[in-house]
Amino acid sequence: xxxxxxxxxxxxxxxxxxxxxxxxxxxxxxxxxxxxxxxxxxxxxxxxxxxxxxxxxxxxxxxxxxxxxxxxxxxxxxxxxxxxxxxxxxxxxxxxxxxxxxxxxxxxxxxxxxxxxxxxxxxxxxxxxxxxxxxxxxxxxxxxxxxxxxxxxxxxxxxxxxxxxxxxxxxxxxxxxxxxxxxxxxxxxxxxxxxxxxxxxxxxxxxxxxxxxxxxxxxxxxxxxxxxxx
Amino acid sequence: xxxxxxxxxxxxxxxxxxxxxxxxxxxxxxxxxxxxxxxxxxxxxxxxxxxxxxxxxxxxxxxxxxxxxxxxxxxxxxxxxxxxxxxxxxxxxxxxxxxxxxxxxxxxxxxxxxxxxxxxxxxxxxxxxxxxxxxxxxxxxxxxxxxxxxxxxxxxxxxxxxxxxxxxxxxxxxxxxxxxxxxxxxxxxxxxxxxxxxxxxxxxxxxxxxxxxxxxxxxxxxxxxxxxxxxxxxxxxxxxxxxxxxxxxxxxxxxxxxxxxxxxxxxxxxxxxxxxxxxxxxxxxxxxxxxxxxxxxxxxxxxxxxxxxxxxxxxxxxxxxxxxxxxxxxxxxxxxxxxxxxxxxxxxxxxxxx
Lengths: 230, 354
Description:
The complex is a heterodimer of chains A (230) and B (354).
Chain A: H1 8-40, H2 45-59, H3 62-73, H4 78-85, H5 95-121, H6 124-131, H7 136-164, H8 168-174, H9 184-193, H10 197-221
Helix pairs in contact in A: 1-5, 1-7, 2-5, 3-8, 5-7, 5-8, 6-7, 7-10, 9-10
Chain B: E1 2-11, E2 14-23, E3 27-31, H1 38-46, E4 55-58, E5 61-65, E6 68-69, E7 77-80, H2 92-101, H3 112-119, H4 134-146, E8 152-156, H5 164-180, E9 185-189, H6 192-198, E10 201-206, E11 209-215, H7 216-221, E12 234-244, E13 250-254, E14 257-261, E15 269-276, E16 280-283, E17 294-303, E18 311-316, E19 322-327, H8 329-335, E20 342-347, E21 351-353
Parallel strand pairs in B: 3-9, 3-10, 7-8, 8-9
Antiparallel strand pairs in B: 1-2, 1-4, 4-5, 5-6, 10-11, 12-13, 12-15, 13-14, 15-21, 16-20, 17-18, 17-20, 18-19
Helix pairs in contact in B: 2-4, 4-5
């Protein structure tokens, strides 16, 4: 039983991790829905370009994304510098910073299942609903959502799970500040670096278990789901 | 009261160039081959396709002009597609009520039970939609559109995806709908029999342009009308079908013109008859001693030029309707037929349109 006992530092990292996962999922569902809708609504050069950009985190080393974000959001970067001039703090080594990083990093995991769901849905049900007097918001809640809820659920769970396993981007952009940017994966790395294998083992087991459950749920929800390969 | 449409656009090799005032009464058939732009025109009318520079004005209400664009949800259009397109997450009742609940009470002209009765879908209400046949689904789709009490009903080839049995099943309902519905109906079709059965006006489309708009009567009185199929020219007569008499015959009457119909008894009322020109012969005097029941006095109004060894004559009946007769050029010569001449038309067979 002693093996499973977690230290206050562990709990702090768990809290940061789940806060990050939660915010990332909420933000991504809001951002990815219209983006996926636009991507699913036709073919054009611009769409192909955006599609490729959205999928970049799937192939890019997380360190590359983290590095670019660090230079942009940091005190000398375009965004960070502007914030500094306006009297605010730059975003490197902060929770807000790693939140931006993980939103971008998990983008394909939210966009692709939604895009797939919207493609399957097609335009016809919406045209029908419009002809029956339903406005855009009405159509979203009474047609799109009920008919694509599987896609939304898969997108939310995958985003959450993928953020759980984030490491490279956070280490590059957020460092390892307890309570602010030190997430589980970073803490496991720290434990292992400090040769505290028992502590690393505890947290690794926890992550392994949670990740398995999450993926099990995803595949149970949607057997046909094949778009995103982890 | 018209629907004024101006639209001009091209996409790859497809061109749509329309400038038309459609009469808003009865059933207007948009007739043309597939790929001629019928469906695109319908999508422009419905507001599903926003073509820049197009203008759509319905009874002085601007649906689209310049920067103004009224979305479909506010146009009060009833839409029925080729495939029934029922909302899969709702029951039959849910589908029917979806539009009804969104129609302001003051604008509701039809109640749920009236529509259910008219389309005979009472037994289907609680059924899930994946347990409906094609014809049943299309009836639900019709009912769903009707329940919004639309100002205009757009039917996009509503029968095209159905097998012939489902077509026969749904045609009486379409006919009932076109006779009872108080709103104008635009029917898109490439089937001439649907036009003959249902339409009052015909708009002929060809390669993205409108060739002509005419009444059904004008359309079928014209030689070489695109409505004629391989059976050749055809006339459609309108009249009242009466009850079967003691001779086992039903009288089909239009003014002074009476036709006798044999065969199994058909429902009475306002009906249309389809008479193929090749089933009509001409005689100089009223013939006697014939098994053919129907011989009517007519006046030859037009003699069309010979084509494929046949001459078609348009003959005016006593009630003003046109009948077409097809004879050989030799008979024309033998009988010395000329326009304005009074002759007798012998009708070998007629088809009552369902």
